[in-house]
């Protein structure tokens, strides 16, 4: 148990610590920006104003534009024309370092290069904003701004369809480079810098995105938070139950060996020597298990997670990391083992050697209020015997119940996460979205061209944009969904009931409302990313969405706010397999669900591991406690056997008590598991919203595992009744 506890803690912890350490080293070595200021006018005067804000320490201008590379599938490549490559630097893997003086070279995304089988020295052509440029690939590598990189129409990256490239500003096909992004580094908090920027330069820039709100950084951060939360919660249950097992084991050992202890005391052995001997039993076992867990955990479990994560996230290095917390937990377990062992053996040293040599006197159970009721005599012998035995051995009963609570809680939370992930997928891709294909519209497409495509595919137009929302208490990045009288996307509440949003209404997602601390009737201020026009709107309704947090409104309402309705996609129930000149890409529902499955693969793996270890924990706990229970009542069972009780009746006697304790632990473990599940879902980040729920299937599966293991262990021990030596069990120490 000590090994399992430290193994899971150090293994999952090593994986999550590795993610954080690797990303921090990556961000540090590439000098990732603290924030990004978006503006169409980044002249020297603007730079001077940003610098004079006070906290600003470094700045670098970039021109970031979307382009299409010269491949048959028209991949989208985000081009960065950099001024000096000092902030959010390109991370070189192959080739030569990025040279600001080189106007002929391009430094390409390694994932895209691998997908297209292109290498250093090859030429590549990009088309953007009416320009067409051909460059030689001088280097291949990564960028800290693209740890997570997916298109607007997919949650999983397809590196054959998208990528990024870095070039010198001198490679831009015009003398004047229209910089639109200012990377900044600053002292102090992002909140302070944002407030100063808003106060001093209001109206001079479109938007400011701090590091924690950047799409790549926030997505990867949310992934790390989930893993760290699991690494912190689940192993705690293992460790606490390991101490429970040690306590019950030491209690059983002392009970079995009290005669030997009495003889040693009578022969002159000091109490301290005997105590050290028995305390060392728990110490050495826990020490060995902890050391093995510390070594094997970080070497094995991270290797199970990293392959699936590296398909979605891009880091130069995927290595587990060591944390002193692992050592502290192992040390705490070792110290607890000493204290627990001491607690288990200390009582026997208060006895005289003559008393210790004798078997321990059985506990006497006095009559309580229940025994004095008239109902008592109507109860079966089985019930009365088990009730009194429980009163005599309260500690054993308590330990058994606590053990079952721990097992039940782990199973309930693990199965709850399993159900939650399935519910989230069903909710998003079946209950909210009812289309078969989603066509992503090219930015340069005209309204007439969009209308023609929509008519041809029998589809409905929608508009999706990133927005920034602000209330009196918080500011968050979110999404805007503009629906144009379509029934292919239906907003819902948490119970999956359809919500109708009228043409003059605005609805906010429940999680966004919680984060901004607003509700129906309150007013929020927001703007579309890339635009400096802020609007204030009143919240009319609240909807729930598992993956997209922000605002939903009609096209009429958007135009009423004096904002342009520009469709970004077309949804249709038809399966589209042809290309249109005005369509960037087409995604089927199957593509999106497959992408979702890939994105959540690491989470599924973690859930399966937790279910396995929870079941293993149940076996170990129930076996140990069953052994202790049989040991403590062996004399009573022998007495009943002498009195004529049949083996079947005695086995039923033990099974009844076992089922009592399992039932109590199971019922108490369900709310504990619900609480763990709630903590887990609350750590899922700002994007995901799903409330904890425990399904009937979850309860049935947990009950089946818990009660099956409990009955199996009980039957295994109750077989000993048939082989019980009554003379050996009942004879005195003489």
Mind explaining what this structure looks like?
The protein is of the alpha+beta class. The protein has three domains: 1-27 and 223-361, no CATH class; 28-217, no CATH class; 429-596, no CATH class. Helix content is 49%, strand content 17%. It has 20 helices and 20 strands. The strands form two sheets. Strands 11, 12, 13, 14, 15, 16, 17, 18, 19 and 20 form a ten-stranded mixed β-sheet that branches. The longest helix has 42 residues, at 215-256. The two termini are 38 Å apart.
Protein topology:
Layout: H1 2-29, E1 35-38, H2 44-51, E2 56-69, E3 76-82, E4 91-95, E5 105-109, H3 110-116, E6 123-128, E7 131-142, E8 162-168, E9 181-186, H4 190-200, E10 207-210, H5 215-256, H6 258-266, H7 271-309, H8 324-345, H9 353-357, H10 381-392, H11 394-432, E11 437-441, H12 447-456, E12 460-470, E13 475-483, E14 506-509, H13 510-516, E15 523-528, E16 535-538, E17 541-543, E18 550-554, H14 555-560, E19 569-572, E20 583-588, H15 589-599, H16 601-632, H17 634-642, H18 647-682, H19 696-718, H20 726-730
Parallel strand pairs: 3-8, 5-7, 13-18, 14-17
Antiparallel strand pairs: 1-9, 1-10, 2-3, 2-6, 2-9, 4-7, 5-8, 6-7, 11-19, 11-20, 12-13, 12-15, 12-19, 14-18, 15-16
Helix pairs in contact: 1-5, 1-7, 1-8, 5-8, 5-11, 5-16, 5-18, 7-8, 7-16, 10-18, 11-16, 11-18, 11-19, 16-19, 18-19
